[in-house]
Amino acid sequence: MLVLLLGTLGLQPGWTQTNALPSLGNGEGISLGAERKLGDRIARELYRDPDYLEDPVLDEYIQRLWAPLVKAAAARGELSSDLQERFAWRILLGRDRSVNAFALPGGYLGVHLGLIAVVTSHDELASVLAHELSHVTQRHIARSIDEQTKMTPWVIGSMILGAIAASKNPQAAQGLIVGGQAAAIQSQLSYSRDMEREADRVGYGILADAGYDPQGFVGMFAKLQQTAGVSDSGAYPYLRSHPLTTERIADMQARLQLNTASPRASGDMVQAMLAARARVMSQNSVEALRAWTQGSQAHSPPAHAAQQAGALYAATLAHLQLRDMAAAERSWQQLSQLTPATPEAKRLVVLLQAEMAAKQERFAVALQVLESLGQAPLPRPELIATAQALLRLPPHPARASITQKLREQVTQAPHDAQAWNTLASMLALQGQALASLRAEGEAQMARMDWTGAVDRFRAAQDWAKNNRLQAGDHIEASIVDTRLRQAQAQIRDMQAER
Q1: Cβ contacts of 495 within 8 Å, gap of 6 or more
Q2: Alpha-carbon distance 65 to 326, whole Å?
Q3: For residues 258 and 218, is the Cβ–Cβ distance under 8 A?
């Protein structure tokens, strides 16, 4: 798939740069609405990519890092209310082991699991997000493509998709890059050094104001610079789209010296386990999984507890993928002994235990494990896991309350496709066919599959015509009619753009 944030639009090896990069400009040639529309077109293709990943645990992690950054950007005046309201601000995860991240027109952002896997602190990953957020708030995308406004959104979108595809498979990119002007367009989409410096400066301030350690910026730069000096194997496409200069690194180090924030303790156990999850989920071949199962034996007893926790978490998850439940249980038991005094780390271990029980189809046990966390309100990972366990159990008293919580979740986050799908299954189980069909349509809308949404909404309409409506069904039927028209309008707009 893809996932890198704004800077993924840089030149890839073998592409000829035929035009000079544009100046910073003012971006006035592309309105917010036009940029959002272009982003919608591109994001729609990303949702259909087989590498697109919906994982409640990693999704929650990214959102927790992201939310303070957006809030800080708004408080600093970097993010206008108009931009905040009209852009998507959605982050997509990609099951790709390359170290990469990107932002697209309209505020769509993405993160490769490979990036999560290599960072050693929350602050390092937050620094990447802050840098990319700054590209968006400063409208660098609009400035970069200002000179290409005569081209249709579909052509520009193909150029961007081609650039993203090239970050992991240059051959596949050729199918997405149309026309003989591909190299010229790509060069116009690249960021100038002035834009990179501006994103560094603004991103640094956002990172600090959001409560993160600015050392994360320097640490991430140092890590990437070291990798750039050792090899260009293609595993770090972020280095090509975000070239690191000694000037940029020195500037970050100088800013750090002026910052009075106290250094934070290293060896974050939570980060180690989340990085381990990303590593295993990004490399799920049998050979790679077997390697992860042996990783927990690589550390001697004196090794740092965080390293041990990460290795054991990876081993447990890999054993699960290989369906070796006995080995998964053994490594999980070792992991659980490391985390009794760290609440958030213990929570991740318990969630892994519930995942293990569900994999064994012991759904009653999974439900008990999740209930043992006793969190209120129920966080999204627990909510999704609890609902999925209830779907495989006989009628249970918790069905109604979990269904209501899912309704509240999609009300607060209407673009949460996974929650919509889970809600649809829960409603169907309870005999609420019309509401279930509507929820399926909403899930397709969230993933921008307008054709799929039309199919589901029409199925809901047909059901309403052929069945007696119960209490509340009339409201659902009215919503279905409205959403069907909206999905059809999206299809017409798409066709008009071609």
Answers
A1: none
A2: 35
A3: no
Task: Give, in order, the Cα–Cα distances in Å from 403 to each of 157, 370, 419, 439, 463.
Answer: 38, 16, 10, 12, 21
Q: Which amino acid is at 22?
A: P
Question: Is the Cα dihedral 94, 69, 407, 401 positive or negative?
Answer: positive
Nearest residue to 435 (alpha-carbon basis) of 465, 406, 398, 472: 472
Residue with tokens 């303790």: 265
Is the whole-model pTM more than 0.70?
Answer: yes
Q: How far apart are the first and last CA of the chain?
A: 24
Can you tell me the distance from the alpha carbon of 249 to that of 473, in angstroms, rounded to the nearest whole number? Answer: 60
Contact 101, 110 (CB under 8 A): yes
- For the cut 80, the answer to whether the pLDDT of residue 68 exceeds it is yes
Q: Of 236, 243, 210, which Cα lies nearest the Cα of 123?
A: 210
Residue 52 β-bridge partners: 94
Alpha helices in 9-138 (DSSP H): 32-48, 56-75, 81-86, 113-118, 122-137
Beta bridge partners of 90: 108
Nearest to 164 by CA among 10, 38, 281: 10
Here the contacts of 332-341 (C-beta below 8 Å, separation 24 or greater) are: 332/356, 334/296, 335/309, 338/269, 338/305, 338/308, 338/309, 338/312, 339/269, 339/309
pLDDT at res. 359: 96
Q: Which one is predicted more confidently, 201 or 340?
A: 201
How far apart CA 249 and CA 245 sit, in angstroms, is 6
- Best CA proximity match to 75, nearest among 208, 213, 194: 208
Q: How far apart are alpha carbons 147 and 155 in whole angstroms?
A: 14
Predicted confidence band at 25 (pLDDT cuts at 50, 70, 90)? very low
For residue 219, the number of C-alpha atoms closer than 13 Å in the C-beta half-sphere is 18
Containing 104, the helix (H) or strand (E) segment is: strand 101-104
What is the C-alpha separation between 284 and 322, in angstroms, rounded?
9
Average of per-residue pLDDT values in the chain: 81
Confirm if 47 and 90 have CB atoms less than 8 A apart: no
